[in-house]
């Protein structure tokens, strides 16, 4: 199969796989349900597989595209060029808070969507979580395994740091599975679409989100270890037990609530040590 699609060659360094299945595209656009009077932002529009049908529904769309050839093509699009605001930038460096202030509808949050390059999807989601306060919802095409990890609960083999942090920030709703044949070139993995809706207020109270992230990273870094071993630099076995948590259990059985309890104990201990 040729890697050239509509005159553009998929670039491996950008992780480009172009969506071309009209049935799948229709399902994704229906899930996003774009409307006028919304601040719509697409990350990585590529050849416009989602851009074009979304533009059929609305009068304005902001797109963030790193590939300069594709950005140029979008600016000169014969039908949608007038509707598009093209930002030629890496989404990883985008200040979505500042972007929301520049949008035409100042009182509305961003609705973000995209077919994310698989090689940056996890760090990009963490970057977006930092801006969750200015985002209404997100619809992303991701590797199916990543969607499974986002949605996983304690006790599942897919459950990990990404699950805990995603669920701290957002309500995670898997939308549909997408086979490799829906793309050119077809990736070697299955894909899926997920909807992420930032919580109005966090489901658990944490003193420091960065401490929560750090504790999750420590706990899941060596999954086979018990938490008394993986967290020994932060809390002693006795300190973990005092929280009502079994120090001999592994990270994968701990709930978001448990991680919040541990993170708050670490924050309290560290603030005492600083005094």
TrEMBL record:
Position of the signal peptide: none
Principal subcellular localisation of the protein: cytoplasm
Domain Ribosomal RNA adenine methylase transferase N-terminal: residue ranges: 24-200
Top-level enzyme category: transferase
GO CC annotations on file: cytosol
Catalytic activity line of the entry: adenosine(1518)/adenosine(1519) in 16S rRNA + 4 S-adenosyl-L-methionine = N(6)-dimethyladenosine(1518)/N(6)-dimethyladenosine(1519) in 16S rRNA + 4 S-adenosyl-L-homocysteine + 4 H(+)
UniProt binding sites for S-adenosyl-L-methionine: 17, 19, 44, 65, 90, 115
Alphabetical UniProt keywords: Cytoplasm, Methyltransferase, RNA-binding, rRNA processing, S-adenosyl-L-methionine, Transferase
Places the protein is found: Cytoplasm
Pfam families: RrnaAD
The organism's place on the tree of life at top rank: Bacteria
Annotated InterPro entries: KsgA/Erm, rRNA_Ade_diMease-like_C, rRNA_Ade_Mease_Trfase_CS, rRNA_Ade_methylase_Trfase_N, rRNA_adenine_dimethylase, SAM-dependent_MTases_sf
Keyword Transmembrane helix: no
Annotated GO MF terms: 16S rRNA (adenine(1518)-N(6)/adenine(1519)-N(6))-dimethyltransferase activity; RNA binding
Statement: the UniProt record of this protein carries the keyword Iron-sulfur: no
Annotated EC: 2.1.1.182
Matches recorded under NCBIfam families: ksgA
Functional description taken from the UniProt entry: Specifically dimethylates two adjacent adenosines (A1518 and A1519) in the loop of a conserved hairpin near the 3'-end of 16S rRNA in the 30S particle. May play a critical role in biogenesis of 30S subunits.
Protein family (similarity comment): Belongs to the class I-like SAM-binding methyltransferase superfamily. rRNA adenine N(6)-methyltransferase family. RsmA subfamily.
PANTHER family (alphabetical): DIMETHYLADENOSINE TRANSFERASE, DIMETHYLADENOSINE TRANSFERASE-RELATED
Protein's UniProt name: Ribosomal RNA small subunit methyltransferase A
Organism: Alteromonas mediterranea (strain DSM 17117 / CIP 110805 / LMG 28347 / Deep ecotype)
């Amino acid at each position: 199969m040729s890697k050239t699609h509509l005159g553009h060659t998929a670039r491996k360094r950008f992780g480009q796989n172009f969506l071309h299945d009209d049935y799948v595209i229709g399902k994704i656009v229906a899930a996003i349900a774009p409307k006028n009077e919304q601040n719509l932002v697409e990350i990585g529009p590529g050849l416009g597989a989602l851009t074009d049908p979304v533009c059929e529904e609305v009068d304005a769309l902001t797109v963030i595209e790193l590939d300069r050839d594709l950005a140029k093509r979008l600016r000169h699009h014969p039908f949608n060029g007038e509707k598009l605001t093209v930002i030629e930038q890496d989404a990883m460096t985008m200040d979505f808070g500042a972007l929301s202030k520049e949008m035409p509808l100042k009182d509305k949050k961003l609705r973000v969507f995209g077919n994310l390059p698989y090689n940056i999807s996890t760090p990009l989601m963490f970057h977006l979580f930092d801006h969750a306060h200015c985002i209404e919802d997100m619809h992303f095409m991701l590797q199916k395994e990543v969607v499974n990890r986002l949605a996983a609960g304690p006790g599942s083999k897919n459950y990990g740091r990404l699950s805990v942090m995603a669920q701290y920030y957002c309500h995670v709703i898997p939308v549909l599975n997408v086979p490799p044949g829906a793309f050119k070139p077809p990736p070697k993995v299955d894909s899926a679409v997920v909807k992420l809706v930032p919580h109005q207020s966090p489901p658990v109270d944490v003193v420091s989100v960065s401490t929560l992230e750090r504790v999750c990273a420590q706990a899941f870094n060596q999954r086979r270890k018990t938490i008394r071993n993986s967290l020994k630099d932060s809390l002693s076995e006795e300190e973990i037990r005092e929280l009502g948590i079994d120090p001999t259990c592994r990270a994968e059985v701990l709930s978001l609530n448990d991680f919040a309890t541990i993170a708050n104990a670490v924050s309290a201990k560290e603030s005492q040590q600083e005094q």
